[in-house]
Amino acid sequence: MTFSAPRPVLTATLTLTLVLGACSSQTGTDDDPPTLTATATATAAVQTSHNAMDTQFAQQMIVHHEGAVEMAQLAQERAATPQVQDLAGQIEAAQGPEIELMHTWLQAWGEPPAPEDDMADMGHGDMGTTMQMEGMTQEEAMAELESHSGQEFDRRFLELMIEHHRGAILMAEGALTDGQDPDAQELAQQVVADQEAEIDVMEQMLEDL
To answer: What's the whole-model pTM score?
Structure first.
């Protein structure tokens, strides 16, 4: 004996099949807009999070930090006082990771790193300062430092690093005014706070020499 399903069940089954079929046919049509993947969405957000000032800040601050690290490494070898050696070590330890961080930003933003040849003597434009210290380029400042020894080295290192820090503060303030990337804004604030504090320390060291 063959049993057939009750008519209400067959009707419900047929209705459900038709509804599902209609839903399936409406998805993936050529007229539908493409759906961004999570990766594409994240990439788009990163690329639009910054502006030209953020790029300029990262490119120029990398070069500026590299100059400070170079001076600090020399001071760790040549400084006559432990206090200056310790400060130089702190400067290198703080600014080295910041250099790497800004490199990752430029890569994520799809922006090129600044060519060293173009940055060596360039001004900071709207940043409001230049790379120079007391009218000297990085190379000239390093040559002068290498010509000194003992307490005179310590004095010139502190004087030049104070000027170097003041330049970084002006650059960071420019980024805070005209930049927009949240991470760059955070770093700019940190640069201002850290380097103002270090200037106070170095000015006191100069008085004690």
So the answer is: 0.72
